[in-house]
Amino acid sequence: MGLNTLPRTITLHDGRNLELRLLEVADCLGLVEFYRTLPEQDRQVLKDDVTTKEWADRFLRKVATKEVLCLVAMDGDKVVGEGSLYRSMYGWTKHVGEIRLTTARSHRRQGLGLAMASTLVKLATDLGIEKIIVSMVENQLGTRHTFEKLGFQKEAVLPRHVKDISGIKRDLIIMANDVSQIWAAMEAMVQDYSPHQGE
Ligand SMILES: CC(C)(COP(=O)(O)OP(=O)(O)OC[C@H]1O[C@@H](n2cnc3c(N)ncnc32)[C@H](O)[C@@H]1OP(=O)(O)O)[C@@H](O)C(=O)NCCC(=O)NCCS
């Protein structure tokens, strides 16, 4: 599942085949389009306003400096999932990475999120990252479930830290995974839960 296995084809639970690969500069507009088609409710839980060309330009600069490693899921020529590993290249949290992940509503509950998350965890370990965190709002059940399956555990709660679409303040939950210890266990879980691998 590391870099040398990308691009690769995965088969979702419903039989659709998608390609997982690293983001290319030419995907920029497709990525913005993907985010623009997400319901506002989903975009509200993302850290950035991901619908603008300015965001995409900033994001691509981070990809170029390798501060962000970005994985996309392609259904034909359409982006249907984006998962990124953010890391700081210097300083005392150099060993820590953060995963942010979004899949298209049309492709959810089909194993895509889990396949992307587990690939990002593997890429992180290949890069020497020892700890991965994921931030989520308290009611993001899908995110919580996906990362729990990969061995992530709740590590911190920041009370009333984010405002949701209705202006209600909600707790931010930070889940973490010490990858150096549990990668082996995760691999066993992924075999049970990830979609079939195609050629
Ligand atoms: C979180 C997210 C990426 C999951 O993607 P997905 O493609 O649905 O993931 P999967 O199909 O691989 O599901 C993984 C597991 O979580 C479960 N799950 C997914 N959504 C769920 C939900 N809303 N409620 C309960 N369980 C859910 C799935 O059933 C699956 O478990 P299973 O194998 O036991 O059935 C997707 O819901 C999403 O993009 N959410 C909006 C953006 C977001 O919140 N991102 C997180 C910020 S890091």
Number of contiguous helices: 6
Q: Which segments are poorly predicted (pLDDT under 50) over 5 or more consecutive residues?
A: none
Supply the helix-strand structural class. alpha+beta
DSSP helix fraction: 25-40%
Count the beta strands: 9
**Span between N and C termini?**
13 Å
Give the overall silhouette.
globular
Sheet of most strands = 9 strands, mixed
CATH class: Alpha Beta
Across the major sheet, the strand order is 7-8-6-5-4-3-2-1-9
Question: Could you please describe the fold and organization of this structure?
Answer:
By secondary structure, the chain is α+β, with helices and mostly antiparallel strands. The chain has one domain: Gcn5-related N-acetyltransferase (GNAT) (Aminopeptidase). 33% of the residues lie in helices and 33% in strands. A 9-stranded mixed beta sheet has the order 7-8-6-5-4-3-2-1-9, with helices on both faces. Strand 7 and strand 8 form a beta hairpin. It is globular, with a radius of gyration of 16 Å. The two termini are 13 Å apart. The mean pLDDT is 87. It binds coenzyme A.
Show the helix and strand layout.
Layout: E1 8-11, E2 17-22, H1 28-37, H2 40-43, H3 53-64, E3 68-75, E4 78-87, E5 96-103, H4 112-126, E6 131-137, H5 141-149, E7 153-163, E8 169-178, H6 179-193, E9 196-197
Parallel strand pairs: 5-6
Antiparallel strand pairs: 1-2, 1-9, 2-3, 3-4, 4-5, 6-8, 7-8
The chain binds coenzyme A.
Coenzyme A binds at residues 42, 45, 100-103, 108-114, 134, 136, 140-143, 145-146, 149, 193.
